Amino acid sequence: MSTNPDSDKPSQQPRTIRGVNISYRILEAIKSLNGAGVSEIASHVGHSKSTVYSHLTTLEQNEIVIKENDEYRFGLRLLSFAEQVRDQITNHDIITAELDSVAEEMVEMIQFGLEEHGRVKYLYKASGERAVVTASRPGSHSPVHSTSLGKAILAHLPEERVDEIIRERGLPARTPNTITDRDELFEELERTRERGYALDDEENLEGVRCVAAPVMEGDDVFGAVSITGPSRRFTHERLEREFAELVQETANVIELNTKYSSL
Predict the structure, then answer these.
(1) Which of 28, 74, 78, 120 could form a disulfide with 150 if both were Cys (CB 3.0 to 4.6 A apart)?
(2) Residue 170 CA from chain centroid, whole number
(3) Whether residue 250 sits in one domain with residue 206
(4) Which CATH number characterizes residue 246's domain?
(5) Residue 47's CATH number
(6) Are 166 and 146 in contact (CB under 8 A)?
(7) Contact 162, 187 (CB under 8 A)
(8) What's the number of CA atoms in the CB half-sphere (13 Å) around residue 2?
(9) Tens digits of per-residue pLDDT, 131-157?
(10) 26-30-31 Cα angle (round to 5)
(11) Which of 62, 80, 98 is the last residue of a domain?
């Protein structure tokens, strides 16, 4: 199967508002640059300084950004949006408590993710003393087809939805080990359902392996929890026995605590 060369954009774009897109890109630039002046932001987003300044002024007036010493950074008002997003996840506290407990005990990295817009969005990340350092963080995203989190979720989505994601995002190669063929991916998803967990064998990042288990809400998949580590420590034997068992237990604890907390 041929893959979508521009995997980060949907194949069919609905009508959009150009000004909103520019403002979003400016906010992304401020995040990426960790605060910056007009000239640096304009260079980053590829728009004129006058255009960028107009957008920044509007964002400042709405308290989305603040200006300090000729540099723009995020305003505290954004915290109210983040808080509301967290409150929408009814079992957020259960997830964070369980992941913190597991990370402390096993000294590795454990993450929780959900599928959103055809990608894995990270909700929470907990790191033990020996945890591998990755770029993932709450709110960031990764492809579904190359991550254990993504495959654990895809395995429990309707086939039509999986095909829709493939059409929109493609199956780009992240490493030489990435699955880039639809039929091969569906075979892997079948194996994932049979064994109860998904694997990322250096498919998203070379030198890093992950194992993930789905967190279900009845018959529907809510998200997934994964354990990640360097391939030299996460051997295939440890990954498919020790860590696979642990990640399934963690997913079960989250499911049970969520169920009984709602009674």
Answers:
(1) 120
(2) 17
(3) yes
(4) 3.30.450.40
(5) 1.10.10.10
(6) no
(7) no
(8) 3
(9) 777 777 788 899 999 999 999 999 999
(10) 115
(11) 80
* pLDDT surpassing 50 at residue 112: yes
Give the relative orientation of helices 18-33 and 38-45 as an angle to the nearest 10 degrees. 120
Tokens in use for 66?
A: 């603040």
Domain region containing 201: 89-261
Domain boundary among 80, 105, 129: 80
- Give φ, ψ of 96 to 5 degrees: -65, -40
Q: Is residue 7 part of a domain?
A: no
pLDDT for 8-57, tens place per residue?
444 455 677 888 999 989 999 998 899 999 999 999 999 999 999 999 99
Residues 150 and 225 placed together within one structural domain of the fold:
yes
Question: What one-character DSSP code corresponds to residue 241?
Answer: I
| Tokens 């993930």 -> residue | 212
Judged against a pLDDT cut of 70, whether residue 202 lies above it is answered with: yes
**Reported pTM:** 0.77
Res 7 pLDDT > 60: no
Q: Which helix (H) or strand (E) segment is 223 a member of?
A: strand 220-230
Residues 113 and 44 placed together within one structural domain of the fold: no
Instruction: Give CA 61 to chain center in angstroms.
Output: 31
Q: What is the mean pLDDT of residues 97-111?
A: 88
Question: Running DSSP on this structure, what letter comes out for residue 207?
Answer: T
Both tokens assigned to 132: 């591998």
